Amino acid sequence: MVTILWLIPALPLAGSVVLAILGRSLPRRAVAWIGTGAVGLAALLAIILAWRFIGSPPPGDALTTTAWTWFEAGGLRPGISFHLDALSLVFTLVVTFVGFLIHLYSAGFMAGDDGYGRFFAYMNLFVGSMLVLVLAANLLVLYLGWEGVGLCSYLLIGFWFKDPANVRAAEKAFIVTRIGDTALAVGLFLIYSRLGTLDIQAVGAQALAQCPVGSTLAIVASALLLGGAVGKSAQLPLQTWLPDAMAGPTPVSALIHAATMVTAGVYLIARMHVLFELAPPVRLAVGLIGAATLLMAGVSALVQVDIKRILAYSTISQVGYMFLALGAGAWSAAVFHFVTHAFFKALLFLGAGVIILGLEDEHDIFKMGGLRRELPLVFWTFLAGSVSLAALPLVTAGFYSKEWILAATFASGDHGHWLWIAGLAGAFLTALYTFRMVFVVFAWPATSPVRRRPVAGMTVPLVVLAVLSLGVGFLETPRALGNVPVFSSLLKPILGGRRLEPESLAEDAGLIIISSLVVAAGLFLAWFIYRRKPSPEPAPEGAKAVHPAHRFLRSGWGFDWLYERLFVRPLAWLARVNRNDVIDLPFRGLAGAANAGHAVLARTQTGRLRWYAAALAVGAAVVILVAVFL
Amino acid sequence: MSSVPYESVIVVAGVLFVLGLAGLLARRNLLFVLVSLEIMVNAAGLAFVAAGSRWGRPDGQVVFLFILAVAAAEVSVGLALLLQIRRHFKTLDSNAAGTMKG
Predict the structure, then answer these.
(1) CATH code at B46?
(2) Count of other CB atoms within 10 angstroms of residue A65
(3) Is the pTM of this model over 0.90?
(4) What is the structure's pLDDT at B54?
(5) Residue B72 is assigned to a structural domain of this protein
(6) How many domains would you assign to chain B?
(7) Which residues 20-39 in chain B show a CB within 8 A of chain A?
């Protein structure tokens, strides 16, 4: 079991090394086999591991292994250690499995691309880093994976680096998440200096022993961790990088949004939930950030025209739901929503990739249309993902996870009701923007023919993910609907299972009915507005937005505009003013003085012998005078 | 035999030295520069000998022998340079050799 544990992150990392070295010389088929195979094998091992872990739980419901000691300095001895418990098991399963399907899909999607080997090397490294992150036994290894994920997102968003816009998007993602990473690093320093350890289990135990609820240390440390999570998970106010991250190839978007990267923040908070439980104000902040983000992103998604941007804003919004759950203290609900979201969001991105490829790089949904007949398989699977995203009651996984979050938020103390209302409004928005997209893309009359059809390797992941996005919800159903607690009982030893519940069965059922009605209302409104193309041609929505408010929302509430003026321009101005670097002035002054002295002395070198002789004589006279009289 | 007072010898040596220095600075012809140098060297030698006799020690005369050797070597090198400069610049004007600076 221990061997399998360290093999899981090692396989994709090894694959990435092999591809980085040999990627250019290997034939494409071999590259695809190595890239996909490494992740596929990891997924297989993860399933075996899960089988054994659940079948015969190890003592303490956790398994820790140290591969070697990373370094040793001043009493700090972090090991390259992996820790497997139910939480990291869930993340490992999703990361490897969804990662494998995305790799399989990429083998077909990227078939015509020059950087085939490079692509798979990056993708493997991405999955490997994420696995290091979720399996890390101490915060330093977690940080290693955290930074690895950030690096890979930069490399993959800027994968087509010949277009400067893509490079800018990659830099933006890197820099914006780096702000959060800095907060996380400071948080780790604080934790180490105060609690004297970076081992995750020990940090939790120490925090419980040393800090009372609401103590300053717990609040500051968890606030710093939250800063890191906000950056990685694209929550307010660091969400601006994610919509631009669409510059990468579509499978990359699927990987960033579903399995890796953005969910790292959710994992971090769930992993360190002991610390967050000691800091109620920070937990409230988590919930508020989640609620604000899910509403903000939901409204923005309503007015986007680029299919990938719609999905990007929906990711921000859905991760907002996870934060809402984390804020409420419903840790398991957040993790469950992560699982369902991973399936349906990967599915939606991969489906969108097929459409974009088929229409020759067309991203504008208003130029798609009529794809229900053209790409029936994509339509049905995309529909499955969409209903799951919109949380269509009873039959979709998204419904059960979102329902759990909403119920837990409702039941969570003073501010629960307000956050619950925000969540409901978000559910309405989600249904509306999801089905706006579905109707416009698939039901409106066709505008351009489909030129490329997906190969089998690309459709298989779609079907598998469609089945999962509908079916996986039955692992956990509310009391009023069958009461299946498979998922929460798995996570119970670590996250405390399903603790927040509405008081009575009737209340539970009432909440379900209300949220179902809200979703249905959103769906109906979308059907009402977008079921068919309006007969007088609408004003072109593409290039110029009709209304200033429209434009404002489409740009994501003007955050880019604001940050541009608040941070980017002052910084650029400062850089321009300080082009000559104030600190360098004394040193450059020294060099200048030496130069000037040289110029003066060089002028005495006239080449006139008699001047030299005179200078010698005067010098000698001066020396003698000095020697005699002083 | 009455000895010459050494003060007057030192004065003579000083006068000779200054004469040599003046010649060195005033003359542009390199041959006369060399001659002036010789005068200065000999002035220094005279001062050494006078000082040696004043203290009744042989050191001054020993140093004078050294000075003679050095002066001979210097003159031979100096004359060789002189010939080269004459051949190259077609003149013995020391200012003409100023292009060799740097």
Answers:
(1) 1.10.287.3510
(2) 17
(3) no
(4) 86
(5) yes
(6) 1
(7) 21, 24-25, 28, 33
